[in-house]
Structures are given as C-alpha cells and as structure tokens.
Design brief:
Elements: E1 3-8, H1 16-27, E2 32-37, H2 45-53, E3 64-68, E4 83-88, E5 91-96, H3 100-105, E6 112-115, H4 129-142, E7 152-153, E8 166-167, E9 171-179, E10 185-190, H5 191-195, E11 203-207, E12 209-214, E13 229-233, E14 238-243, H6 253-258, E15 265-270, H7 276-281
Parallel strand pairs: 1-2, 1-3, 3-5
Antiparallel strand pairs: 4-5, 4-6, 6-7, 8-9, 9-10, 9-15, 10-14, 11-12, 11-15, 13-14
Helix pairs in contact: 1-4
Length: 283
C-alpha cells in the first residue's frame, strides 16, 4: 500500500483538498493518504519545508510527499519554477522548484533530483497543478515507472530564504521560526547549536523584554508549574519557549502572553567560569 502525504496552503474552507484526494484515489485506489497540514501560510514554502522536515522521517521509506504550496509553474526566463521530484533518505517529494527543496535539505544534498519539463506542453496542468500534475507524477512513481523516463535529472534547485542562527563566542542569536497551535514559540536554535558550548555552562535565554528570561532547559512542559514559562528542546531538536498549559481557556500560550511573532529574536548568552559576567556577579 502506497502512503502519500499532503502538505498545502489550501485550508479546508474550499473543495481543493478533497479534489486532490479524489484525483489520487481515481488513479491509486489503494493509496493511504495522510494530511500533514493544509494551513501553511499562502505561498510560504519555508514554512512548508519546516513542517515536513520535522516529520517526514516518521513515515516509512518509499512514502511520497506532495507539496501543494506555490505550485503553479512559472515559465518566465530567470524566474522559472517547474514541477520537480526529489528522492531523499528513501522518500519521494513532489512539488514546485520554488525554493522548497533547498529549504527542506538545508545543508544536505538529495539522492536524486528531477525536473518535470513536459508540463510546458500540458496547459491543463498549469492551473491546480497539485491535482492536474503532481497526482500523475505520484502515480508513475507508485507504479514503478523510472523517474528518468518522464523527468530530466538535474543538480540545480532553488533555496528559499531561511533564518539561520548566528553563533558567536558566547552568544547564539536566533529567532522564532514557527508558532504552533498551542502558541509555543519554536526557534531556529538546535540542540546541536546549544551543546557546542558544553552541557554544564550557565546560560540565559533572553527574548522580548529584559524581565523575560529563562536560565534552564527542562525535559518536559510539566517540569514547571502551570502558567510558568519553560524552555525545552522539542521532538524536532529545536529550542522551544512555552507557557505550561498556557493555551488553556483561550489565553493563547507564549506567543500572546509575550506578544511575540515569527522573526522576533531569541538569544542565548553563555557565562562560563571565569567570564567577565561571572566575575562581576561576585561583587
């Protein structure tokens, strides 16, 4: 049974998601279709890449991931954006080469990458490309058709702009890159970034206002009392700032309480033994 995931910016108000699923079941009636999310901010391929990066490896190898975000092809010279297929870590990704693939890969490289140039002659697929093109590509892959027989191998793919943390001698300058449904602030600071400074060096996480700071990493949300702020590394290995059960009763969690948005800065300052900050703190 072929597993196919869907990630789109279509929402659920309209028929679009149902139409994609119906088209898939027409050609792959045994397919198991999984929704990752349909609430990507319209045309935000970096957000789509973030969502998939956090979960695609939870699926079995051979899974096909369809990304319907900014999917319509662009044939304008210098701004070309055509359907593409990437194989990476045993998974297949079908989407538009609009920056998504480079964003998903970060510093890694694909195992295989193909561009579907035949769409230039398939005008019906220029609109609602997820249904009228990506579904057919998924069917070809599922049926074992060699990708090289219908798409052109390529080594080039676009990369969307990504917020990257800046790491100095005793400072990590990061930012909020996602706010989840609980209002938790997910940053671009990874556990690996943090552990470059060691595991027993005092630190302070600073954000928004001087009085908002956290100086420890917790293992769970419940490590602090209800309503208290907490920092932890989530299941994707990213630093997250939250209010334990802060989303209860409609308060909206950390994002509303602290008034923070995507792109707002989050800094971690380290004060190892012998640093200027520690010496001053003795007096």
């Amino acid at each position: 049974m072929q597993i196919i995931t869907l990630t789109t910016d279509n929402g659920y108000q309209d028929y679009y998601v149902a139409a994609i699923k119906g088209a898939l079941l027409q050609v792959l009636p045994e397919a198991h279709i999984i929704d990752i999310t349909h609430h990507i901010t319209p045309f935000n391929v970096s957000e789509a890449a973030f969502q998939l990066r956090c979960c695609f490896e939870d699926f079995p190898e051979g899974t096909i991931h369809i990304i319907g975000v900014d999917a319509e092809p662009n044939f304008e010279k210098g701004r070309e954006s055509l359907p593409a297929i990437m194989k990476y870590k045993g998974h297949y990704f079908i989407g538009s080469d609009n920056g998504f693939f480079g964003s998903l890969l970060d510093e890694a490289f694909p195992d295989e990458f193909y561009t579907y140039t035949a769409i230039a002659e398939q005008k019906v697929a220029w609109r609602f490309t997820e249904k009228n093109c990506f579904v057919d590509l998924a069917a070809k892959i599922t049926n074992g058709t060699p990708i090289s027989s219908f798409a052109t191998p390529s080594r080039a793919y676009k990369r969307a702009f990504e917020h990257k943390p800046a790491i100095d001698q005793l400072l990590i300058r990061g930012a909020v890159v996602h706010i989840d449904a609980f209002g938790n602030l997910i940053t671009n600071i990874s556990k690996a970034d943090f552990e470059r400074f060691g595991t027993d060096i005092p630190f302070t996480i600073k954000y928004m206002k001087k009085e908002y700071f956290i100086d420890e990493i917790s293992a769970t949300y419940n490590a602090v009392s209800q309503g208290e702020r907490v920092a932890l590394f989530n299941s994707a290995g990213l630093l997250e700032i939250a209010i334990n059960r802060g989303a209860n009763e409609g308060f909206g969690g950390a994002s509303k309480l602290f008034g923070m948005r995507i792109g707002d800065p989050v800094h971690i300052e380290f004060t190892p033994q012998g640093s200027k900050e520690n010496i001053q703190s003795l007096f």
